[in-house]
Specification:
mainly alpha, Rossmann fold, Tyrosyl-Transfer RNA Synthetase, 2 domains, 3-stranded parallel sheet, two-stranded parallel ribbon, 13 helices, 5 strands, 7% strand, elongated, binds tryptophan
C-alpha cells in the first residue's frame, strides 16, 4: 500500500528483444492497471550486470525498453517507468536484506543454478544475491502484487520469506507481496516449437515475433510456422501449432476461437498463416510508429525519465529510512 492505494511492481531486464508473447501475454493487459494500483515498471539494469554486458549496448537497450513500454500504451504520467540504477535505495536496501537472507535459501534458487551452469567463467557474488536485489525492488514500494512469469515465482516466495522474517523482528515494516493473478493475456508459444513458450531468449529467431520485426519478417515467420499436415483450422489438443496460430489471431483481432474456426472453414494453412501475419502487422505497426515517434522526441523521454526517477526515489526512500531506523542506523542530522 502506498498512500492508501494498492501498489504493483514489476521489473524487466533490457536483455533480449521483447516478443509478441510479452506484448499479448502481459504488456497489453497492463495499460489499465493504474486505475486500481500505483504501478511501478522498473528497467532492472542493476540485475543485468550479473552477467557480462557490453556497456554501450546495455545503455541502448535499457532506453529502448523504457520507450517501448510507453509505446505499448503505459502512460508515464500514470505509471512510474524508471531505471533501477537511478534510485540508489534499491542497492541500499539490498545490502540490508542480504544480512537477513540465508545462504541456504539462495543455494536453493534454480535460476542461480541454471545461470551459474551457463556462465561457468563468471559465477559472481551478484549472480548469487540477485534474488535479494529483486526482493529489495519489490519491498521498497510496499508492493501488494507483482506480475511475474512462473520462472520468477521462487524469487517472489523468497521475497515473502525475507519480508516476514524482517516484520517478525521489527514490526510491520513491509507489505507482503503476492503474485499478480489478475486478467492474464494469451499464452503465446514458439512458432517453431509450439510446445515451448515464445521467448525473447530463444536461440532460433524464427520461433519468435519481435515487437520491432518489419512486415516482411513477420509474414515470413508466420508462413514458416510449424504446423501439422491435415490442413484443417481447428482448435484441438493434438494440433499445437494451429492452436497457437488461432490464439495469436484471436488475440490480435479480438475474435473468439469459434469465430476464427468459422472464418477459415474450408481454407488451407497457407491462407490462414498469411492472415495471422497480417493481423500481427496490424497490431505491431502502430506500436512501432509510436515507438519511432517517441525515440525522436528526446526531450520528452528525458523529462519523463527524470520525473519518474524522482517519484520512485520518493517512495523508495520512505521505506528505506524506516528500515534503516529499525536496524539501528543513526539518525540523520538536518
Ligand atoms: N528477475 C526478473 C526477471 O528476470 C526481473 C525482476 C527484477 C523483477 N526485479 C523484479 C520482476 C521485481 C518482478 C519484480 O524476469
Amino acid at each position: 500500500m502506498l498512500d492508501g492505494k494498492k501498489s504493483l511492481f514489476s521489473g524487466m531486464q533490457a536483455t533480449g528483444n521483447l516478443t509478441l508473447g510479452n506484448y499479448l501475454g502481459a504488456l497489453k493487459n497492463w495499460v489499465t492497471l493504474n486505475e486500481e494500483y500505483e504501478c511501478f515498471y522498473c528497467v532492472v539494469d542493476e540485475h543485468s550486470i550479473t552477467v557480462r554486458q557490453d556497456p554501450a549496448e546495455l545503455r541502448k537497450r535499457a532506453r529502448a525498453l523504457l520507450t517501448l513500454y510507453i509505446a505499448a500504451g503505459l502512460d508515464p504520467k500514470k505509471n512510474c517507468i524508471y531505471y533501477q540504477s537511478h534510485v540508489s535505495a534499491h542497492a541500499e536496501l539490498s545490502w540490508i536484506l542480504n544480512c537477513y537472507t540465508y545462504m541456504g535459501e539462495l543455494n536453493r534458487m534454480t535460476q542461480f543454478k541454471d545461470k551459474s551452469a551457463k556462465h561457468t567463467d563468471n559465477i559472481n557474488a551478484g549472480l548469487y544475491t540477485y534474488p535479494v536485489l529483486m526482493a529489495a525492488d519489490i519491498l521498497l514500494f510496499q508492493s501488494d502484487v507483482v506480475p511475474v512469469g512462473s520462472d520468477q515465482l521462487q524469487h517472489l516466495e523468497l521475497t515473502r520469506d525475507v519480508a516476514m522474517r524482517f516484520n517478525n523482528l521489527y514490526g510491520d515494516v513491509f507489505t507482503i507481496p503476492e503474485a499478480y493473478l489478475g486478467k492474464v493475456g494469451a499464452r503465446i508459444m514458439s512458432l517453431q516449437d509450439p510446445e515451448k513458450k515464445m521467448s525473447k531468449s530463444d536461440e532460433n529467431p524464427n520461433g519468435s515475433i519481435y515487437l520491432m520485426d518489419d512486415t516482411d519478417t513477420i509474414i515470413r515467420k508466420c508462413k514458416r510456422a510449424v504446423t501439422d499436415s491435415d490442413n484443417q483450422i481447428l482448435y484441438s489438443e493434438d494440433k499445437p501449432g494451429i492452436r497457437n496460430l488461432i490464439d495469436i489471431y484471436s488475440a490480435t483481432t479480438g475474435l473468439s476461437k469459434e469465430e476464427v474456426e468459422k472464418e477459415f472453414d474450408g481454407k488451407g494453412y497457407g491462407d490462414f498463416k498469411l492472415a495471422v501475419g497480417e493481423a500481427i502487422v496490424s497490431v505491431l505497426k502502430p506500436l512501432q510508429d509510436r515507438y519511432n515517434e517517441l525515440t525522436a522526441d528526446k526531450v520528452f523521454i528525458d523529462q519523463m525519465i527524470k520525473e519518474n526517477a524522482e517519484k520512485a526515489s520518493y517512495y523508495a526512500n520512505k521505506t528505506l529510512r524506516k528500515v534503516q531506523k529499525k536496524v539501528g542506523f543513526p539518525e540523520r542530522i538536518r
